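user: can you give me the structure for this one chain? tokens are fine.
assistant: on it. calling the predictor now.
[tool input]
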Amino acid sequence: MRTGGRSSTPTGRGRALALMRSESPAEARPRIHLDLLVDTTEEQEAEVERLVALGASRVDWGLYPPNPDFVVLADPDGNVFCVVDLSRAPSG
């Protein structure tokens, strides 16, 4: 069974995000994953803590570069995603 969801801005304008439920197992290093973007390091720390409180877990990921601009988390099913601090992103 597949179900989907859609999220958009309150005005109904802008980009939409659709999510589909899948019964396939989570991949350890998926080629495509979700990045959540925040503007500052403080926002990143707060968002990571909020997501962990909601059930996400920190991923012990051995591929972090020095001074990473992202934190890798996993949802309760093991799907990985990142919280990216745009103030430290290479594209700045």
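assistant: here you go. The beta strands are 4-7, 17-20, 34-38, 57-58, 70-74, 80-85. The CA atoms of residues 55 and 76 lie 6 Å apart.
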